[in-house]
Design a protein that fits this description.
The protein is an alpha/beta fold. It has ten helices and eight strands. Bound molecules: iron/sulfur cluster (SF4).
């Protein structure tokens, strides 16, 4: 690589999530950046919701959250994520060249350890890297450059999940927020998994928008989402699964925005959010019934 290296540790391999991966035969490497607009410029999360921005793990949990004032303080982890985000905006090609340099090193390290490499490019961002070509690498994307490496990501951008040209080595799980339940249903109905954060405990099954009960699998065992049950590895399944996660960080545990699901604990909750949610559900069901009676698939 001709350019100077800016990050000795571009990918984290020692976060709580990444460490769990070794029990499953993987070296898990995660790229963390300053989420949404927290770097003070640009937006790394095009489909973020108010709830997820307010609770984002990339800012309010783990090492990034070790500050006295969660909203205003800065620490070295946050500074490093801002620096990397600025790098991405100032010099996207340089950023990607450096990512490639580090992935090459990780491939060697995984081989030495006898582990499979799993890379998450968006630990705390939602950048469609599959759409960015790297000029210094024959205009290939990072996924094309490493066809034998498994990549995983969570995303709130439905088009990324449904895209027929999604790289074969990129596994995407759609993330539920308090505003995207229609997208969640579309993903599930097309056999893709949806990550949902549940307060206190995971239910065995859950109906997004009271629509249909989907089986909930435990997503906290590891971050290797490509190993999750899915229609692709479970014969006779054609719908997706809900990947259940418990809230991480102080803020998320107390969340009342609707981002963290609570109605599995109190099915008949009557707060404003629940009433508004049920109202939207009724509208959706009415739309679906009208479409059916007009002869269209709902
Ligand atoms: S989209 Fe994801 S990474 Fe971005 S702010 Fe929301 S939770 Fe954080």
């Amino acid at each position: 690589m001709g350019q100077a290296i800016q990050f000795q540790r571009f990918f984290s391999t020692d976060s709580a999530k990444a460490i769990k991966a070794s029990k499953f035969g993987h070296l898990n490497a995660i790229n963390y950046m300053a989420p949404h607009k927290s770097a003070g410029r640009g937006n790394l999360c095009a489909s973020a919701s108010p709830g997820c921005i307010a609770l984002c793990l990339g800012w309010y949990s783990g090492q990034a959250s070790f500050v006295a004032d969660l909203e205003n303080d800065i620490n070295n982890v946050r500074k490093s994520r801002i620096k990397k985000t600025n790098y991405f905006f100032n010099d996207t090609q340089g950023f990607l060249n450096e990512a490639v340099y580090h992935i090459n090193k990780l491939v060697k390290r995984a081989n030495k350890l006898g582990l499979k490499l799993c890379v998450r490019m968006n630990g705390s961002s939602d950048i469609p890297f599959e759409r960015i070509k790297i000029q210094a690498c024959d205009n290939k994307t990072v996924f094309e450059l490493f066809p034998n490496v498994q990549f995983v990501d969570y995303t709130k951008i439905l088009d990324r999940v449904l895209s027929p040209s999604k790289p074969h080595n990129l596994h995407l799980t759609l993330s539920r927020s308090e505003t995207n339940w229609r997208d969640c249903l579309t993903a599930l109905e097309n056999g893709h998994n949806v990550a949902v954060v549940f307060a206190e405990e995971l239910p065995d099954e859950y109906a997004i928008c009271k629509h249909y009960n989907y089986e909930v699998i435990d997503g906290d065992q590891h971050d290797l989402r490509h190993l999750d049950q899915s229609k692709w590895n479970r014969p006779n399944e054609y719908l997706g699964f809900i990947v259940g996660l418990l809230p991480k960080g102080r803020k998320a545990k107390l969340d009342k925005s609707g981002f963290v699901v609570r109605d599995h604990l109190e099915p008949y909750m009557q707060d404003d959010y629940a009433l508004e949610y049920r109202e939207e559900c009724r509208e959706y069901e009415l739309d679906a019934l009208q479409a059916l009676s007009a002869g269209y698939a709902a």
